[in-house]
Amino acid sequence: MLGFVLRRIVHAAVVMLCVVFAVSVLIKLIPGDPVDIMAAGNPGITEEQKQQLREQLGLTRPLLTQFATYLVGASRGDLGQSIRFRVPALQLVFERLPATLELTAAAMLIALLVAIPLGVATALRQGGAVDYFGSVFSILGVSIPSFVLGILLILLFSVDLNLLPASGRGDFLPAAVGKLIHAGNTQALSNSLRHLVLPAVALAVSVMAWNARLTRSAMLEVLRQDYVQFARAKGLPQRVVVMRHALRNAIIPTVTIVGLQLGYLLSGSFVIENVFAWPGVGRLAIQAIFWRDYPVIQAVVLVTGVLFLAINLAMDVLYRRLAPRIRYAGR
């Protein structure tokens, strides 16, 4: 297992190096000059001053030289300064990262809490009304884009019913829970949850639909296995057969794909954060693209890429624990 983890870490480092280089090239191809965008609010700036500013920001150096300088700085934890805000780009990303992680974790939790029971229920009642409902829900869930669903939720629950806020964010959820425990402040937790519900649901529905169908298919396959039939023949209660023998094995494919889905949710949150004005990394990335803030774009890609690879490594290790019969190459 240790050798597998070390190989995956080396592989992840190579992948991130390639990704950062590709992004460094692509962002330079975006039409527009960050200096021209900065100068738009200062019409008195001259062309000579613009050129000096480009030289100060290193925009006139060759691309490979810029990338080499970036790697040297990144090895020291310095990902450059934001062109717009003139503060370290990594600081900006870390300030917004808790909001994105909170939204992603909430969406995945909602998706799993609904998808797994729904998948089990539809498998146990194959061909019944519950199964048909699950099929319709899954088709709608994967067909409706998350940003369209988000807008529909805003129109229904914020505009028409006036039940939930349409945008913004409350306190960081763990901090709100801490206030509830230490000071009995229920308003902070309520405010956080009310702001979190709509974006989390909009982000979770497609993942929820996929996992429900995946769990159903896996359960149907497992329920036909000999060991499940043997457990029933021994007279074990249905609940024990389903939960202890069937679900434990049927859940493995879902765990396998959860790592990829977390990466999908991280990228999907970029759109949802802009729909709901959620102050996370995704909203920062979109703003940085409009501002041509190259260091911030690179910092966002690097941080989210590292998170994605770390999540997938953790899922591989968890997969091995859930299915001890699995052996990785090189064991």
How far apart are the first and last residues' alpha carbons, in Å? 7 Å
Q: What is the highest CATH level, the class of the domain at 98-278?
A: Mainly Alpha
Structural class call reads mainly alpha
In the CATH hierarchy, the architecture of the domain at 98-278 is: Orthogonal Bundle
Q: What portion of residues is helical?
A: over 70%
Shape: globular
Percent of residues in beta strands?
Answer: under 5%
CATH homologous superfamily placement of the domain at 98-278: MetI-like
Q: Give the helix tally.
A: 13
Describe the protein in words:
The chain is 78% helix and 0% strand. The protein has a domain of 181 residues: MetI-like fold, CATH 1.10.3720.10. Helix 5 runs parallel beside helix 13. The mean pLDDT is 82. The N and C termini lie close together (7 Å). With 331 residues, it is mostly helical.
Structural descriptors:
mainly alpha; 13 helices; MetI-like fold
How is the secondary structure organized here?
Elements: H1 2-28, H2 34-39, H3 47-57, H4 63-75, H5 89-124, H6 129-143, H7 146-160, H8 173-183, H9 186-223, H10 226-233, H11 238-275, H12 281-291, H13 294-322
Helix pairs in contact: 1-13, 5-6, 5-9, 5-11, 5-13, 6-9, 7-9, 7-11, 8-9, 9-11, 10-11, 11-12, 11-13, 12-13
Short description:
This protein has 331 residues and is mainly alpha-helical. 78% of the residues lie in helices and 0% in strands.
